Amino acid sequence: MFVAIEDVCFSYTDAKTRALDNFTLKIEKGEVISILGRSGSGKSTVLRLLAGLEKPEKGRLVIQDEVLFDDKTFLQPEKRGIGMVFQDYALFPHLTVAENILFGLFRMKKAAKKKRLQEVLELVELQDFGKRYPHQLSGGQQQRVAIARAVAPNPHLILLDEPFSNLDAELQGKIREELRDILKKANITSIFVTHDEKDAHILADRIVKLKDGRIEFVGRPCDMLDTYRQTGIQPLTDGFVEKSLTGVN
């Protein structure tokens, strides 16, 4: 098992209930996992705990046999080998595309940096955009730069927070498939959070549905559709199940 998250619990100060309650998940190398849930379900809390931005009350995180946190260990964020793609992409406006990507490669030698830069530019199909600045790019291109920057240092894991929230509806459909292709080509294990079931079903190998800090469902997208059909549980996105089952777009 490449990533093992075991019995993780977390509460925010003065909260009456836990934001995350005994969250457990095992992830294979190269898997794309979606954490799906409504606002307040605990999905962003999962990312913050994995990234090291919050400290859990209890639980354990192991990546590739290295303990990142448990009762005795808490590895600092910069030492975890985890990449993060934020909702607003957080690109440096005064740096070019190439400079943004190179920012996280300060430990590499010059020749290795240049080689890795070309590799990730090709990965996200922005080979001709290295000298442009973020304001000269479309929203979809900015997202690909943010992904390239996260992928460049070869992290163990990439976390994506609502990756399509800043894109218009027309662009979202195109970028969903592009993002899955990029993640699969890079073969980097990925976790992304979303409130949109379309994102989860198109992108994810497996979906983890959260409700009130607890896991309500774990399985493949097709398994979730079967569960909805058999149990009558309501999806988060109105009409999505009906459209998916009938093939209507």
From TrEMBL:
Query: InterPro entries annotated for this entry?
Result: AAA+_ATPase (IPR003593), ABC_SmlMolc_Importer (IPR050093), ABC_transporter-like_ATP-bd (IPR003439), ABC_transporter-like_CS (IPR017871), ABC_transpr_FbpC (IPR015853), P-loop_NTPase (IPR027417)
The GO molecular function terms of this record are: ABC-type ferric iron transporter activity; ABC-type quaternary ammonium compound transporting activity; ATP binding; ATP hydrolysis activity
Cross-referenced SUPFAM superfamilies, in alphabetical order?
P-loop containing nucleoside triphosphate hydrolases
The segment(s) forming the ABC transporter domain are 3-237
Q: Which GO terms describe its cellular component?
A: membrane
EC code: 7.6.2.9
Matching Pfam families, A to Z?
Answer: ABC_tran
Its recorded reaction(s) are: a quaternary ammonium(out) + ATP + H2O = a quaternary ammonium(in) + ADP + phosphate + H(+)
Q: Which UniProt keywords apply?
A: ATP-binding, Cell membrane, Ion transport, Iron, Iron transport, Membrane, Nucleotide-binding, Transport
**Subunit structure and binding partners:** The complex is composed of two ATP-binding proteins (OpuCA), two transmembrane proteins (OpuCB and OpuCD) and a solute-binding protein (OpuCC).
Q: What is the name attached to this protein's record?
A: Carnitine transport ATP-binding protein OpuCA
Per the UniProt record, the lineage of the source organism begins with: Bacteria, Bacillati, Bacillota, Bacilli, Bacillales
